Amino acid sequence: MDTRRQELAEFLQAMRQRGSPEAFGFPSGSRRRTQGLRREEVAQLAGISATWYTWIEQAREVNVSPDALDRLATALKLSKSERSYLFDMADRRDPQGQQSEVDTAPDTLVTMLSQMQLPAYIMGRTWDILAWNPAAEDLFSGLLDIPWTDATRPNLMRFVFMSPIARLFVVNWEMRARRLVAEFRADCRSRLEEAEIKQLVIELSSSAEFSQFWKQHDVLERQGGLRAFQHPIHGLIQFQQVTLRPVEQEQLKLVLLQPLA
């Protein structure tokens, strides 16, 4: 039997059994032989066939649509993590996952940034830079040391491909730019239909280099490593970069740059 299909079946059964019937609008009654909700009740809440839902819990080979999963997630009152797990086990893309989210940097992370001595910044889902500390502002001259508003936030991809300063600032610009495009594609792989991503790609495609790299469809996970910059004041400086993702907001990236002697 397919492991993922079996996991989906057992997960739905566990979610069905954990809640009290009253919480879902059903009387508990003394004649209930099962803990939590009955299969028929879940099917009723989700607006699907009771027989078909039973087949899912029996790990049969049935085709479960994203719409049906969406209704099951709502019916069972799944959390964000549980909903994500449900769609992963069914090997389906969550339609709500394609909706745009407003990027905000958590206050706790912003406070941490202000207390760090090394350059650090928080990057959002479209690679807008949402928050940064004074050390990052000093490093990224021409990007973070100019006035910005929420409507016109700095964006790493725009800076690299549309600012003449970046070509002088980033050491070995072409190699780094090519890798950034591959990392950006990998990071946005499940969100390429989002309006903000599509608009950004159209905008960046006015750069011949971005257009060329984008069409190559290279995919790389964002990694740390050596980063070198030719700063207008400090000259050649090098850093070891580390990128972290907050568990609560995985679309965000906390980027740290450790100076090298």
From TrEMBL:
Pfam families: HTH_31 (PF13560), MLTR_LBD (PF17765)
TM stretches of this protein: none
A GO term for molecular function: DNA binding
InterPro entries per record: Cro/C1-type_HTH, Lambda_DNA-bd_dom_sf, MLTR_LBD
CDD domains hit by this protein: HTH_XRE
Residue ranges annotated for the HTH cro/C1-type domain, each copy included: 7-83
Top-level division of the source organism's lineage: Bacteria
The protein's name: Helix-turn-helix domain-containing protein
Annotated organism of origin: Methylophilus medardicus
